[in-house]
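Structure tokens please, single chain.
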Amino acid sequence: MARAGITADRLVAAAAELADEAGFEHVTLSALARRFGVKDASLYSHVRNLNDLRTRLALYAGGELIDRIAAAVAGRAGRDALTAFADAYRAYALEHPGRYAATQIRVEQSLIADSSALRRTAEITYGMLRAYGLAEPDLTDAVRLLRSTFHGYCVLESAGGFGADRAVEASWAKGVEALHRALEHWPREAQA
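Here you go.
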């Protein structure tokens, strides 16, 4: 019988809090059971295993992230949309480091197709890039460039990896501007 008050949603929300407090790698069923004052086995009526919990957390955090990005880019295009997208992405990654780390795990393809948050992420990201006149396969290449640039910058920044005197914010703005220019002058692949 499920313990009163514990639901899968409450469990995932508690996992999100724990991830931000202690780090994504410290999200375990034992740690969550301690938070709820129950034995580990009590949680198995809500999630199948640790992988299931972490996948649910990844989808939860991905939904939060895209909601923030969608609100930021609404009604914008081109440089303005890219800047709003980038700033919202960075703010989430820095404010919620554990949740952000969860968004980086590999999720099974079957779950991606069923996730409205992940579909929305693709729609918003690809929509923003279409304003630059990009089509496949250039869209996929541009998404990969943006994701790896944003991710790398956020990981380095959160780890204190930028030691130069220049303000990190100034470098971020310059990097986003460079991405905008790269997207404007994208080396398009010849269409068949």
